[in-house]
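ASSEMBLY PREDICTION REQUEST
Request ID: AP-0331
Submitted by: J.K., bench scientist
Number of chains: two
Total residues: 640
Priority: normal
Notes: Please return the full assembly, not individual chains.
Input sequences:
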Amino acid sequence: MFAYITRRLLATIPLLIIALYLVHVGISLTTDPRSGFYLCLPRCQDGFDQITEVYNLDVNVWMRPFIWFGDVLSGDLGTSSSIGEPVSEIIVDRGWNTALIAVPAFIISAVVALLLSVYSARHQYSKGDYLLTGLAFFGLAFPSFVLALLIQNIFGVQLENWFGVKPFNTGRKTNENFIELLRDIALPVMSLSILFISADSRFGRASMLETLNQDYIRTARAKGLPEKRVVWKHALRNALIPLVTLWALNFSALLGGSIVTESIFSWPGLGPAFVRGLNDADIYLILGIVLFTGLITVFFNLVADIMYGVLDPRIRLD
Amino acid sequence: MAKSTFDQENLDPEYFDSERYEHHVPVFSAGEVEGLTEAPQTFGWLAWKRFRHHRMAIIGAIGLVVILLLFIAGPMLSPWEFDERNIADRLQGPSSDHWFGTDEIGRDLFVRTAQGGLYSLRIGFIAAILATAVGTLLGALAAYFAKGTDIFISQVINMVLIVPALIVLSIFSKYSGGNATSLAIVLSLLLWTRIARVVRGVVLSIKEQEYILAARAAGASHMRIIFRHVLPNVVGPVVVEVTLLLGTVIVLESTLSFLGLGVQPPNASLGTLVADAKGNIDNDPIRVLTPGFFIVMIVLCVNFLGDGMRDALDPRSKNERG
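STATUS: Completed
Returned structure:
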């Protein structure tokens, strides 16, 4: 197992490094942090040199990423120019805020999608199945920003008494009171969950249907096992295997910060920080967030592969 | 007798092109086989029959045609121009004059929605076609040549999958200019991986089949085998993926444009129309709802169509819905 994890990391970490290298070069080639200085040049030579120093602009574009890699290895992600704080602090703060809506959204969407897909598969082509499939199709067709704007408008504005007066446009985040916090995260969590439930439940239905049509399920029924046990014990375990990959990808996507949903609800998570970094050509912030989301993706893919082995002992990892 | 099994016809590479080897559907005419009461059907005919009975797919196809007609013919019927400003009529609701109302500087929103919708669809089509071409070719090459080629292409695919799509997309589209072609190229750079994986899987099983070996023995070159004997077999799965991909591209493009990272003014897409209107959503939700409605409808129709194609073109699928 340990050998497997090492080998996987050895295979994926270089890919992440290449991706970061390309992002670094791409941004360096297209932006210039000194652009504001050229006009006043003789007078502001000190500031000019300082910026050159901070971004290593005297080094060749193709070599610059290596300096950044060296800094990262020594634990320094640089300082964000747009927010004015060290990137590592921003990632910890914003990452925590993102997790506050990512974890509930993930748990809700995983549980609901699982229940819906089991129902749909057991009652294939029933009215309920058609209704759920139709709703899932509808949900899948919604871009996240349309859904988030709709939810914000319906629950935050039209029904403003439900959640207080427009709490979600103001970008406030109250950690003091648990009930307040629940109210603040309700709408972002709702819009994220709906998106993931529609995608997961269609996938889960297909996986569950395939499992329920297997011979060993017929055997289990033939030997007189109660239906509950057949579905939840025999079928579910195998149907879960493809779903686990999807969940791993979903969770890493959520933890990396949902750019659109967080921006619309003014949630101070990683997503809006990234958009800000992008608009201000804040290279260290962008690279820090890409590094963070990349590491999360690598980690959860690994977790998914290990979960395969737990769910199906026939899958050997080494 | 041994001579007749190795006659010229069997060695001719053209011989192996025939439909019968590709989908294992024998093509006999009814008269040839005794006792056969029903004329046997080709793969294409069976697929069309399955597709025709797929009610959702037909609804999706009709829906797409209706939306396209509306987008193309609508602006011709309307007296307004795409960029025509009319400050006196700013921020109006829907009326018989301005069917979808007007925006902050009095431009007619129906014409803008139609043109923006066409722009979104254009980016979607270009990106889907590019991604399909790249994905199919690289997937087929990886599976066919295996070894180093396969390792290299698979690693590139893994790299694209490791970095979150929207983040990379926004970095590259932010600095790519924002016209339809460059945006489509950026989108397709990230979306070819899915098709490449599907094609790679299919080709891995096809290349072990005897007719490939036979074509090789008959002296066909690798390129000829790939283009004439291997790729025609992946048409089914690829058509399904392309359709579903089109939905993904349209959603991604509108998301990028909504964030201000995609289509740039003076051009408009459905995403930028939503972004333009969102500041005023509390008083005037209709302006957000109309372009949003068209995005949802286009993607819905495309997905229905893709689902129907999957049922029709996947040889494993039985005609379950009757």
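REVIEWER COMMENTS: The mean pLDDT of chain B is 77.
SIGN-OFF: pending second reviewer
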